[in-house]
Amino acid sequence: MRVVVVSERNLLQHGLVARLNSLLGVRAVGCDAQRGRLKRVVSDEDVGWFVVDADLFCYDPFGLLVDVRVRWPSARRLLLLGTLRDVAIERGMALGVEAMMTVGGTMAVLEELLHLSPGRRFYSEVIASRGHDADGLRRQPVKRCRTVPLTLRECEVLHYLATGRTVRETAELTGLSSRTIDNHKSRMSRRLGVRGQAELTDYAVRHGVIPI
């Protein structure tokens, strides 16, 4: 089985490739996320798995996961998470990634998922529990409260910010830029007569934008 490890962290990439090559029947190779280099390394050979580091520096790992699905449709994808970020888990699930686990996952788990039956998915226990909550939150409809002088989009932004999401995470969830989220925050604060994130959150709770 051919496995391609995509990471810009040399220690992680080299260590994981070495561990994978110690498994019977596995041929692993490491690569960074540059498209041209990835295509040269992989060529047209059949690839069983792409192991993609979620913490890429110079390339969007989720864009890479989409590219892999288009370029190598028969390959399965493992998203490797260095930290448990709900946004990353949500996006991995939304893209239909076949497997997700943390960087600290055991070799036994890694070996097991490499032989996952076609059509099945594997999320390590801690990711599955976090991912379920995140997925439920993402799909929870955001309603516009008639007593709140905000647009539906502003209510959505306020909903995520008030439930603890950062500006960057809110931008990813809504498909907006971080700058646009900041602009929404400023406009909402002026319109509602509040100052700072704490007062915005208090307003959201008192007016039913988020559940208590």
Record keyword descriptors for this entry.
single chain; 212 residues; alpha/beta; Rossmann fold; Arc Repressor Mutant, subunit A; 6-stranded parallel sheet; 6 strands; elongated
Characterise the protein shown here.
- The protein is an alpha/beta fold and 212 residues long.
- The protein folds into two domains: 2-136, 3-Layer(aba) Sandwich (Rossmann fold), CATH 3.40.50.2300; 141-206, Winged helix-like DNA-binding domain superfamily/Winged helix DNA-binding domain (Arc Repressor Mutant, subunit A, Orthogonal Bundle), CATH 1.10.10.
- It contains ten helices and six strands; from the N terminus they run E-H-E-H-E-H-E-H-E-H-E-H-H-H-H-H.
- It has helices spanning 10-21, 35-42, 61-71, 86-94, 107-114, 125-139, 152-162, 167-174, 178-192, 196-206; strands spanning 2-6, 27-31, 49-53, 76-81, 99-102, 122-123.
- Helix 5 links the parallel strand 5 and strand 6.
- It is elongated.
- The termini are far apart.
Short description:
With 212 residues, the protein is of the alpha/beta class. 51% of the residues lie in helices and 13% in strands.
| Uncertain residue ranges | 132-144
Structural class: alpha/beta
Q: Return the CATH architecture of the largest domain.
A: 3-Layer(aba) Sandwich
Strand fraction equals 5-15%
CATH third-tier fold name of the largest domain? Rossmann fold
Distance between the termini: 50 Å
Overall helicity: 40-55%
